[in-house]
Amino acid sequence: MMKKPLAVILAAVLITLVLTSCKAKTEPGAVVTTAAPVSETTTVKPGIDVSSFKLSYSKSDSLNPFKSETLNNQVVQNLVFESLFALDESYEAQLQLAESYEYTDSETLLVNIRQDIRFSNGNKMRSDNIVYSFNQAKDSPHWKNTLSAFSSASEEGKYAVKFKLNSPNPEAHKLLTFAVAKMAPDKKGYPIGSGRYKFNEGDGLVYLEKNTKYHDEFIPHFVKIILVNITAEESIENAVNIGNISFTFRDLSSGSKNKMQCQKKPVNLNNLVYLGINSGSGITANESIRRAISLALDRETLVKSAYRGYAKAALSVFNPACALGKNTAIFTSNADADAARQAIEQSGIDKKDLKLDILTSTTEGKADAALLLKQQLEAVGFKVTINREKPSAYASAVKHKNFSLYVGETRLTADMSLNSFFTGGGSTSAGIDLDGKSAKAYRGYLKGDNEIGRFVLDFSQELPFIPLLYRQGMICYSYSLHGDMQGYTDNYFSNIEDWYFN
Asked: Which residues, at least 6 apart from 225, have a Cβ–Cβ distance to it below 8 Å?
């Protein structure tokens, strides 16, 4: 059968998108705009250039940063709101709204805020806005987990805020990346921030416009950014592929990287993919066996094959993008089969008993990784079976320790906390001996009783779990968009003023 010309296919797709946007009830995955589809012929007020930069958002979700649940809207909000600190690509905290900070004791962090900051409506930002935003963010879907390390925030004068910690944490300031918003919305009901843009609407269009009250010099090519209501993930990907939107960020949690037909750039995430180990029963209770498993793994192959290159091999417990990860490397990116076989010999386990099962979910990435892990472990003498479960059954099996190994993923907070592994009830603590030397050394590090090197050494010997890789996301943008795209996690538009169309 002959292939249809590309132009015919694109025309059919565009017609379908327009028709679906006019239906009173939309089918799952349909592209919907707030009014007429954004195009060159859309009638709008003078000054609104509908052919310029366009982003997707979810009309059914809130644009309030403390209520939004979709990645769609959280990406857009990155342009409207600022935070006390912004993380760079190496997960180092850069001052944003904060002017300075100090730990007055092991559980108290004092942050002084800039006195030249104004919201987009012209009102000055003060400490009461920070405290209000902190309390809202602490219960929000987006920042609830990040801010769980803090117990409270209180005003210390007009331009200082005191944050109380639940326990000592010398990296806690890296967690203060929540959006700061004015307590009341504007006259149109949109939340007010101090970022480079602000929300507005007109003629049925919702858009961002340049914030003229922005505190630093900002001369962008895009004075207005149109927001296009697209809710389904596949529709967002379609929209950027055909140019209906200009830019999107995908966290690749559900795969889809091969569907994107546009310009792409990998973005570091703090998502650790690891091999969980049942250290309480079976042959995996043997420390030498755990070492043999780690030595048999080829992390670079996992990166290239299971994650299509959108990941970085975990050579440390910590993210390789950050200084802590670079300075505490204990693994190699490639397998050492000879050393793995030697560790098996040292274990004293009979060859006929070298049986392992790998629990994995059906999620893309994890399932592919399990197949590769099976091959790598069998190459050094293990007999491996894979148990694939749907996400709910997988979570139950992990919780009840029905595994010898499992492929897990967790998003660590920016302070690189491993508390979820080493505290009772931690979301990733299944199978770990919480009285083991790694757990004790980590708790000692947090209390200041020992250095991080002590924990890393104990971890390398005990191996309570095995870090595999840190997954990456993807910035995707139109072929007509140019500029050195410097966006990264939670700062996707870091140099948007340098982006332009031909």
From this structure: 52, 53, 54, 55, 79, 197, 207, 208, 209
Rounded CA gap, 287 and 291, in Å?
6
Of 353, 360, 300, the closest CA to residue 331 belongs to: 300
Confidence grade of residue 259 (pLDDT, cut at 50, 70, 90):
low
Name the one residue in this structure whose structure tokens are 């967790």.
410
Please say whether the beta carbons of 108 and 163 come within 8 A.
yes
- Report the Cα 5 to chain-centroid distance in Å: 38
**DSSP secondary structure letter of residue 146:** G
Query: Cα-flanking dihedrals φ and ψ of residue 444, to 5°?
Result: -65, -35
The span from the CA of 463 to the CA of 331, in Å, is: 11
In this prediction, residues 148-170 reach a mean pLDDT of 96
| 453: enclosing H helix or E strand | helix 452-462
Q: For the chain, what is the mean pLDDT?
A: 88
Tally Cβ neighbours within 10 Å of residue 482.
15
Q: Is the pLDDT of residue 463 over 90?
A: yes
Q: What pLDDT, in 10s, does the model give residues 237-247?
A: 888 888 899 99
Closest among 227, 194, 200, 225 to 212, alpha carbons compared: 194
d(CA 301, CA 303): 5
Distance of CA 372 to the CA centre of its chain: 25
**How far apart are the two ends of the chain, measured CA to CA in Å?**
38
Task: Tell me how far apart the alpha carbons of residues 469 and 413 are, in angstroms, rounded to a whole number.
Answer: 16
Residues 103 and 147 sit within 8 Å (Cβ to Cβ): no
Q: What is the CA radius of gyration of the chain?
A: 25
Measured in whole angstroms, how far is the alpha carbon of residue 59 from the centre of its chain?
Answer: 22
Q: Residue 161 pairs with which residues in a beta bridge?
A: 111, 155
User: What amino acid occupies position 397?
Assistant: A
Question: Dihedrals φ, ψ of 171, to 5°?
Answer: -110, 15
Give the model's pLDDT for residue 364: 73
pLDDT at 338: 98
CA distance linking residue 420 with residue 464, whole number of Å: 13
